[in-house]
Every structure is written in C-alpha cells, then in structure tokens.
Design a protein that fits this description.
Length: 375
C-alpha cells in the first residue's frame, strides 16, 4: 500500500469543501477505499457529498460518519462546517464494507450473513473499522456480536455524534445501527487506546447493587466510600463532582489496566447511594477516576511513544477517534490534541472524529482516544 491521500476543509459550501479536499490529493494515484468524516453542520448534504465524491474520485467504497467535531493530522474542527477525508489503496478483495440492516448484526438469518458470510468464511478477518448509532440501545451487543462473528476480531471506531442527523456512510447512507469495513490479514494495523481520566483511591468490590445503583462497596455504604476517595473538599459539595469525577469499571483480562469510564448519574445522600451510567452486578470491581487535563496529556504521549516503538515500518495512514469530552475542552484550543499526535508521530495522514463513545476491541469506552495506524 502506498501512503494514503489526505484532504480537509472548513467551509459552509459542501461543493467548495470537496474541491479544497481533492486539490490536496493526487487523484492519479490508485485508491479503492475512502474514509470521510463530516461535522453535523454539513450532514444534511451527505447524500450529495457521497455521490459527488464517487464521481470525482472514481472510488466507489467509502466509510465514515458525522460528528460534532472532526479531525485530521494536526487539525481539529468543532462547531463549524467541515469535512476530512482520506483515500487508501488496499489489496484486491482485502476488505468488505458492511452495514447492519436491522437490530442485529449476526444473529439469525439476515442480510448481513447472506451478504458477507462467504467473504467472512474465506478471509477470516481480524480487524474492522466500525461506526455505531448512539440512539440504538443494542449497539454494545452488536459490537460484541460482530467481533465474535469475526473470530474475536479487533474493532476500532466510534459512535456518531450530532445535534440532528446521525448519518453513517458505508458505500451508501445508513443510520440506526452498526456499519463499517472489515479487513483481512493482508491489511496490517497497530492500534492503541489512551485514557482521559486518572484513577483515584483504590479498587473496590461491589458488594450490593441494584441495576445501575451502587448500594454497598466493600460492605460499606457506597457514598461513604466514594466520599473518602474524592477527598473532603469535593465531598463537602457534591455538586462539584459533575463532569469531574467518574466511575470506572476495570476491563477483565486487560494487561494494561484498561477501564470503562462511566458517568455518575445520581447521588442519594440520605440513603448513601450512588448511581452510574452502566448496569452493575454484585462481585464486580469498580474504582473512581478524575478527569484531569495533565494526566490525559501525559497518557496520550505515553500511548504514542508505545505505538511508535512498536512500528517496524512507516505507517501509510491512520484513524483517530476521540471523545467529545476531550479535544478543546480537555487539551486546549488550537487543535492541541491532534498537534500532540503530529508532534510525536510526524505528518502521517490521519482522519477521524469526536465521538459519543469510542470502540476498541469488543468494548465501548468513554473519554478515550483510539488511534489506529495502517502499516
């Protein structure tokens, strides 16, 4: 594979944005798959944009979605009309674009199996780039099922973020479920995840819970344990914890200490209860985390150093999916998050968006950054 082609533009006219993006590319070079991300301020034109791109580039396979923010090498676009795109050339028949036509990707007899079963059986794909609809309550189940259908395949991606339209692109315009592109073993990637929160206190065992409500931790009232972990200053005014302190569920079997960050959604001082944005069970582990700009920056740089050390060749291009809670609000204005990546890795062509949740392996994360490099 040759180095991928990158284009980006921030302008209110979608035709002009396409012209600017394509002017940054050499369309004489071979390409058979495009990645495209649009801010939601251009989402209403997505049908015209996709049709126009297929005609102008002669590339028929495109995947992507919409976001409140999109990003590319060294550049972030938030709350403005913008698009980023990347063209790559992959070995023939090394990928398969898909979209789920109904609520399940792999269960039962459905269009997904009918369309992709032969390719899946012959290729045994190990990796996929996926986009999901955050309005779909079964999206986590779809992510797990797709990974299992791929033989525990590794997924990366994110959930669409938008204030209106939740369009995804998978050769056509779709929404509501899971879509993306699967790759066979001829496509080599390296992928890493960076957490945006730092653990505080110690890991606790959930000794009593009901649905998403923590009743007891380590056989003590959940709120008492929580208050001890966050410290006296915050415990004296629990209104200050919103957007600052989160629950974290350790990922079983992770050798890197990964955890799934979930929001605190309710505090009952009288009964000393704590509700979080995830169903929990007695016997599981939990800890609390703090959203901290310096820690997020340090972890991102550490992740970039690790992925850089693993490289044996120069990447052709990459994808980066970051949380809406990161970007300018966590790293600062002037595209700081993407500039950190550029400073550490150089001018590798990278595109992506700011998601409603980030996908890595079989799991849906929050407040993370997921980087994938094509080698």
């Amino acid at each position: 594979m040759d180095r991928f082609q990158l284009g980006h533009a921030g302008t209110a006219q979608w035709q002009e944005a396409i012209d600017i993006c394509l002017a940054q590319m050499d369309l004489t070079k071979p390409a058979n798959l495009g990645f495209i991300y649009l801010t939601d301020k251009l989402a209403e034109y997505v049908y015209d944009i996709l049709s126009h791109l297929k005609h102008r580039t002669h590339v028929q396979h495109w995947v992507g979605t919409t976001g409140v923010g999109v990003c590319c090498t060294g550049q972030e676009y938030f709350n403005v009309p913008a698009m980023v795109m990347m063209l790559g050339h992959f070995p023939d028949n090394a990928f398969s674009v898909f979209s789920a036509p109904n609520e399940t990707v792999v269960e039962g007899s459905n269009e997904f199996i009918d369309t992709h079963q032969t390719w899946l059986a012959s290729k045994q794909p190990l990796f996929a780039v996926v986009h999901g609809d955050p309005r779909n309550q079964k999206i986590i189940h779809q992510i797990t099922q797709l990974s299992e259908r791929m033989g525990e395949g590794f997924l990366v991606g994110g959930l669409t973020s938008s204030r209106r339209h939740y369009f995804q692109i998978a050769d056509n315009i779709v929404e509501g479920n899971l879509s993306g592109v699967m790759f066979d073993s001829n496509v080599t990637v390296s992928t890493r995840l960076s957490q945006g929160c730092a653990a505080i206190g110690t890991r606790h065992q959930i000794t009593e819970a009901s649905y998403n409500v923590l009743i007891k931790l380590d056989d003590r009232p959940a709120l008492d344990v929580f208050n001890e972990d966050i410290g006296a200053e915050l415990a004296s005014d629990l209104n200050k914890v919103a957007g600052h302190i989160f629950a974290a569920l350790p990922v079983q079997g992770s050798d890197t200490g990964d955890y799934l960050v979930r929001n605190l959604v309710g505090i009952d001082k009288e009964n000393k209860l704590l509700a979080i944005g995830e169903l929990v069970n007695t016997g599981e582990s939990i800890l609390f985390t703090r959203r901290d700009a310096q820690t997020a920056r340090d972890d991102l740089i550490k992740m970039l150093g690790n992925i850089k050390k693993s490289l044996t060749t120069t990447p052709k291009g990459g994808l980066y999916y970051s949380c809406l809670g990161r970007g300018a609000s966590l790293f600062g204005e002037n595209s700081e998050e993407l500039k950190i990546i550029q400073a550490e890795l150089g001018d590798i062509p990278i595109v992506g968006f700011f998601a409603n949740g980030e996908i890595s392996h079989q799991r849906l994360y929050g407040y993370t950054g997921v980087l994938t490099l094509f080698l």
